[in-house]
Amino acid sequence: MSGWEKSALTLAVFLPAAGAVVIALMPKGTDRLVRLLGILFSGAALLVGIIMLFGFDYGAHTPSGSPRSIRTTTSASTASASRCSS
After folding, report:
1. pTM higher than 0.85, yes or no?
2. What is the DSSP letter of 28?
């Protein structure tokens, strides 16, 4: 797994938050700069989301710890336990 795959979701979540902090710290009277920064931070978060969309693996298999495999395992163990108790 590459560094991008590990940090893409973190970037997508915290980039707008970092932008909000930067904008909150701007002095009064800089309306145009505040708008520009808002557009830049929002656009960067949108770009990260689009890149994540194209990098998403839709054919990935379900992990072994998923609820589907747990249900299958549980039902098999329940069936064997009921056979033993009869």
Report:
1. no
2. T
